[in-house]
TrEMBL record:
Keywords: ATP-binding, Carbohydrate metabolism, Glycogen biosynthesis, Glycogen metabolism, Nucleotide-binding, Nucleotidyltransferase, Transferase
Catalyzed chemical reaction(s): alpha-D-glucose 1-phosphate + ATP + H(+) = ADP-alpha-D-glucose + diphosphate
EC number: 2.7.7.27
Name of protein: Glucose-1-phosphate adenylyltransferase
Any GO MF annotation of the entry: glucose-1-phosphate adenylyltransferase activity
Task performed by this protein: Involved in the biosynthesis of ADP-glucose, a building block required for the elongation reactions to produce glycogen. Catalyzes the reaction between ATP and alpha-D-glucose 1-phosphate (G1P) to produce pyrophosphate and ADP-Glc.
Gene Ontology biological-process annotations: glycogen biosynthetic process
Domain of life: Bacteria
Glucose-1-phosphate adenylyltransferase/Bifunctional protein GlmU-like C-terminal hexapeptide domain mapped to chain residues: 308-411
Family membership: Belongs to the bacterial/plant glucose-1-phosphate adenylyltransferase family.
Pathway: Glycan biosynthesis; glycogen biosynthesis
Protein encoded by which gene: glgC
Record: residues binding alpha-D-glucose 1-phosphate: Y108, G173, E188, K189, S206
Amino acid sequence: MSGLKGNSPLARSAMAYVLAGGRGSRLLELTDRRAKPAVYFGGKTRIIDFALSNALNSGVRRIAVATQYKAHSLIRHLNRGWTFLRPERNEGFDILPASQRVSEDRWYAGTADAVYQNLDIVEGYAPDYLIILAGDHIYKMDYEVMLAQHVASGADATVACVEIDSAQGSAFGIMHVDEADRIVSFVEKPKTAPEIPGQPGRSLASMGIYVFERKLLFELLREDAADPASSHDFGKDVIPKLVAAGNTWAHRFEASCVRSGAERSAYWRDVGTIDAYWEANIDLTEIVPELDLFDRDWPIWTYSELTPPAKFVHDSGARRGQAISSLVAGGCIVSGGSVQRSLLSSNVHVHSFADVSFSVVLPEVDIGEGARIDRAVIDRGVKIPDGLVVGEDPEEDARRFRRTDRGICLITQAMLDALD
C-alpha cells in the first residue's frame, strides 16, 4: 500500500486509541447531526481521518475509536472506510460506542473513562504501548518517533506538544518544562503561560496525544475510576497526577511532524470554531498551502465514494462555468457559474450566473441560479435558492444565519426553511 511505513517493532507493538466522542459545540449547527470528528474537511475527508491516517502511516495496525455523541455519521464513515484491517495479520479496528459496559446507567464520563470502560477489549490485543489520540485535529505526524522517545526516556507518560505564542496560552493546556523537556507542571488555560526555557514568548501546548506503557496505564485508570473526586479526564486528572510524580516528558511536534517539500512549517490546527474551520479549509486553496494534501508519501486515507469527474460547462458571455484557485471534488457540476477561492465537496451543483467566493461547501449542496455567496460555510444537502445573496449585508446575514465576528456565515437548511 503506497505511503505506508515498514513494520517497525515499536509501532507494531502499539495500539492507537482515538477519542472521538466530543460534542464539538463550538462548531454550532455544523455538529447538530454529527460529532466533530465526523465533520467534513478538505473536500473529501473527515476530520478523524487525519489521526487515523497518521496511525496507519506510522505502522500502527491496531486501532480503536471511542464514540459517544451523535455518533451515527461517524460510525457509518468508519465502517465504510476503515474496516480493511485484518485480524489474521495481527491487525484490528474496533469502534467502541459508549454502551454502559461498566454500569447500565453510565456513559463515558471523561476521556480517561472512555478508555477505562474498554480495558478488557484493549487487553485482548495486549499491546505494549497505548497511543491516546484526539480525533478532532488536523495534522500529519509520525507516531513512531514519539514512541521511540517514550521508550528511550523511560517516561511514565509522554505528552505531544506544539509550540505556540505564549499570548495564546489561555486557550490551551500548557506544559511547563525544564531544559530537558521534562514536564514540571501542567496549567490548564492560564492567563500567563509558562515559557519554554531559552525561548522567550513561546510555550508548549498539549495536543491531546499521550503515550503510555499499557500495564502502567491500566493501573492509573483503575485508580482514577475509584476516585470519586476525579472528573476521569486525561488532561484534568491523569496527566497532572503523573506530572507531580516527576517522570512525564514532553514530545515536541516539530520532531515528528510529517512535511512534504511544499510545507514550510509544522502544521497543526484545532478547527473547533466556525472561523478556524473556515480558515483551515480556505487555506487549502492557496497556491502553496501550509498543509499539503497532495503528499503521496503520507496520504490521508478515507472512505472514497464513487463519483464522476468534476464538470464545468457553458462558455457564453457571462455564463461561464469556471473555478479559480479552488478545490473541486468529484461529482461537482459548475454549470455556467463562477467559483473563486472556495472548496467544493462531492456532488455540489453550482447553477448559471451564481457566484461563490471564499466559501466552504459541504457535499450535496445545490446553489441556485444567480446566487451570490461570499465567506460562507454551507452544510451538507443545503439548497440555496435562486438569487440568494450572502456576505454583502452584515445585518441581514446576522438576522438569517449564524454570522461570526469575522463575518463568516454558517448556512443550514433549517435556517433557509425559516425564511419562508
